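Journal club prep — side note

Before the paper discussion, L.F. wants everyone to see what a predicted structure for a comparable chain looks like in token form. Sequence:
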Amino acid sequence: MILNYKNMEALNVQIINPKAKLLLMNMEDMDLIRINTKPTLSEMLAKLRRNETKVPSLEEITEEVELVRKKRYNAKMQNSN
């Protein structure tokens, strides 16, 4: 069987009714669609940490992000004066 995928589209779907998810899962089982889910931040961090020996915790990452944001905000405020 030769399948023609010339007209493939990617859509972002927001599921409102749980029955819709069941329909999508059934369509995936019938090889009509492919469902790709985006990994969560925790899942991405876990993947990145697999091969690292010294890994920052989520709290350390949050502290660093807040520091960078504070520096950017202060620089922006100084430039606007």
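L.F.'s comment for the group: Residues 39-81 form one domain. Keep this in mind when we get to the figures.
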